[in-house]
Amino acid sequence: MIIDGQTALQAASRLALALLIVSAAISFIRLVRGPQAADRVVALDLISVLIVAFLAVYAVHSGDTSFLDVAIAYALVAFLGTVALSRFLLRSRGRQTPGEKR
Questions:
Q1: What angle do CA 18, 85, 25 make, to 5 degrees?
Q2: Are 8 and 28 in contact (CB under 8 A)?
Q3: pLDDT of residue 8
Q4: Which of 73, 84, 93, 94 has a Cα-to-Cα distance from 58 of 20 to 30 A?
């Protein structure tokens, strides 16, 4: 059986898409379970990176470059969201009462 370049690219992109979906599911479990807010922020940021990677691989798989534009826009929004959430957690951490754990 002879495999040409296009068939190998399609197989590799399908494998990459499947691995990215599994990785996002595992990251979602970490997002739900925690145990701390910092763990949840990191998991949410990782899911954002995995979504950007998924969009890039899907653009290669489908041959449609418009998904790359969506991936760039999503990466910018996800970065700003992560920064805003981190600043919120940092500020709310300072407002705890003396008896609470930090």
A1: 20
A2: no
A3: 87
A4: 84
Q: What angle (nearest 5°) sits at the alpha carbon of residue 74, between those of residues 69 and 79?
A: 135
* Burial grade of 50 (CB within 10 A; 0-12, 13-18, 19 or more): buried
Distance between CA 42 and CA 59 in Å, rounded? 26
d(CA 50, CA 47): 5
Determine phi and psi for 36, rounding to 5 degrees.
-110, 165
What confidence category does residue 94 fall into, taking pLDDT thresholds of 50, 70 and 90?
A: confident
Residue spans of the domains in the chain: they are 5-94
Tell me the average pLDDT across 48-67: 93
